């Protein structure tokens, strides 16, 4: 029996922040859009639940309506391996506010998903099994046995992207991964904490941990670790979580006694774009599928939404090949920071003792006060759009030096080639 094959202008695989943003813009522009996800919404997602200031600004620009109320967060405490603290002040930039949001990904992603559906995208709740490139169109085989055809494709299906794999847009020997695990614990925490953690006993360094307050008396606590191309090492993050909880208790950030964790969930992060060709023809990768997670601290929501928006605009722009305009956007937004941050991450993983020393120095009492501001701006990649403050000037200086130092590295050459 012959089943009829449905046809769409654009299929977006993955309805997380990247896919939902792209689908909403394309839908409002009048395109016939299929938004495909194996999950039904609302769905949970392993995350620290911290929506950074640029993602807050972009959500507002897009007119997304949130029914859940976020908890506003401003300053953060960065804790060094020896327990020293550096305050990273939240400072408004020209293009982003001086606050981030804490909101569960169930609520945040649902609002973006609803926004895409309101724009006219058609939701298809199936897993993508296989995609193939068929003479300028794409054919998608879904888990219910049906298939569909589209003129353009957006791969927004996360770090372990089926679209990237099937279209040979990722080289797994070069791609860089991290693994992070989060859970919720009943506690009151006012200022979010990020810890640069690890010692000989935990064997994790350089990894990071976090303790973020949520809205309902439960805090989001987690551990993340970079593994470069060796995904077998991701289990170290899960193994390190109990030790991190103990450390938080020793530092007086969590109460003594048995800690009950709920909703433990881990996930992969693809970092720094190395090994990914983000666009070919009319197939574009966005968000984690494109490896756009910050290699230094694991933030990916803003880059996911921003790349989803850029991919949508590139497909709507009739004057230029979509892959060229999309790559131009990624070059401008990510090339310098992503490659220099990737190099820093690799050096830290290859030389844990030097990283340990540097992390203690960064958080020591001898560090000048302006360093917290500059480091907060640099490692959160907030240089573009920052205001005329001293911390931003220093962060731009750090960024220029890091970019120059990374020029001759393999990371720079690989990503520059992919974005050319
Ligand atoms: C533990 C952890 C903590 C993190 N904390 C933060 C944080 O606090 N702040 C921050 O900014 N970033 C954080 N990140 C990173 C952030 O979660 C991601 O960068 C962000 O979710 C990327 O959005 P995305 O839309 O690209 O992908 P995702 O949000 O992963 O969405 C991908 C979607 O694709 C769907 N999908 C996958 N495969 C298929 C398939 N074959 N067929 C159909 N559908 C499919 C999935 O169901 C999913 O809904 C964290 C990541 C982890 C793992």
Any overview of this molecule?
Strands 1, 2, 8, 9, 10, 11, 17 and 18 form an eight-stranded mixed beta sheet that branches. The protein has a seven-stranded mixed beta sheet with strand order 6-5-13-14-15-12-16. It contains eleven helices and 18 strands. 52% of the residues are buried. The protein is an alpha/beta fold and 420 residues long. The chain is globular and about 65 Å long. A hairpin with a 4-residue loop joins strand 10 and strand 11. It has a domain at 6-79 and 101-174 and 274-337: FAD/NAD(P)-binding domain. The model has no long low-confidence stretch (mean pLDDT 94). Helices cover 35% and strands 24% of the residues. Helix 7 (322-350) crosses helix 10 (390-406). It starts with 5 loop residues before the first strand and ends with a helix. Bound molecules: flavin-adenine dinucleotide.
Architecture blueprint of SSEs:
Elements: E1 6-13, H1 17-28, E2 33-36, E3 50-51, H2 53-62, E4 71-73, E5 76-79, E6 85-88, E7 100-102, H3 105-118, E8 122-124, E9 128-134, E10 137-142, E11 147-155, H4 162-166, E12 177-186, E13 193-197, E14 207-213, E15 218-228, H5 235-250, E16 261-270, E17 279-280, E18 283-285, H6 301-316, H7 322-350, H8 352-362, H9 370-379, H10 390-406, H11 410-418
Parallel strand pairs: 1-2, 1-11, 2-8, 5-13, 11-18
Antiparallel strand pairs: 3-7, 4-7, 5-6, 9-10, 10-11, 12-15, 12-16, 13-14, 14-15, 17-18
Helix pairs in contact: 1-3, 1-6, 2-6, 6-7, 7-8, 7-10, 7-11, 9-10
Bound molecules: flavin-adenine dinucleotide.
């Amino acid at each position: 029996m012959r089943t009829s094959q449905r046809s769409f202008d654009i299929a977006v695989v993955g309805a997380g922040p990247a896919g939902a943003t792209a689908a909403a813009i394309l839908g409002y522009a009048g395109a016939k859009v299929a938004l495909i996800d194996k999950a039904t919404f609302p769905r949970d997602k392993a995350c620290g639940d911290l929506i950074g200031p640029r993602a807050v600004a972009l959500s507002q620009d897009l007119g997304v309506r949130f029914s859940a109320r976020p908890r506003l967060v401003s300053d953060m405490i960065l804790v060094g391996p020896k327990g020293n603290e550096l305050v990273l002040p939240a400072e408004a930039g020209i293009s982003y506010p001086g606050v981030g949001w804490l909101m569960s990904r169930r609520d945040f992603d649902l609002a973006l998903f609803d926004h895409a559906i309101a724009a006219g995208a058609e939701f298809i709740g199936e897993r993508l099994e296989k995609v193939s490139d068929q003479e300028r169109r794409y054919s998608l085989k879904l888990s219910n046995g049906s298939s569909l055809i589209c003129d353009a494709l957006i791969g927004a299906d996360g770090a372990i992207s089926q679209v990237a794999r099937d279209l040979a847009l990722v080289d797994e020997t070069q791609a860089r991964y991290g693994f992070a695990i989060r859970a919720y614990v009943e506690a009151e925490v006012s200022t979010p904490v990020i810890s640069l953690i690890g010692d000989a006993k935990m064997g994790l360094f350089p990894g990071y941990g976090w303790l973020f307050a949520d809205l309902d008396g439960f805090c989001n606590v987690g551990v993340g670790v970079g593994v470069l191309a060796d995904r077998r090492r991701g289990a170290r993050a899960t193994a390190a979580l109990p030790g991190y909880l103990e450390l938080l208790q020793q530092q007086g950030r969590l109460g003594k006694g048995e800690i009950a964790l709920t909703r433990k969930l881990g996930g992969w992060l693809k970092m720094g774009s190395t090994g990914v060709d983000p666009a070919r023809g009319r197939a574009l990768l966005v968000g984690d599928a494109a490896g756009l997670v910050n290699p230094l601290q694991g933030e990916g929501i803003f880059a996911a939404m921003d790349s989803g928006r850029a991919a949508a605009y590139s497909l709507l722009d009739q004057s230029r090949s979509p892959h060229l305009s999309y790559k131009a956007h990624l070059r401008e937004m990510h090339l310098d920071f992503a490659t220099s941050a990737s190099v820093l991450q690799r050096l830290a993983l290859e030389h844990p003792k030097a990283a340990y020393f540097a992390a203690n120095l960064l958080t020591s009492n001898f560090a000048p006060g302006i360093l917290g501001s500059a480091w907060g701006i640099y490692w959160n990649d907030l240089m573009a759009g920052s205001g005329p403050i001293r911390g931003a000037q220093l962060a731009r200086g750090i960024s220029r030096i890091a970019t120059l130092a990374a020029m001759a590295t393999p990371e720079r050459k690989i990503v520059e080639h992919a974005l050319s």
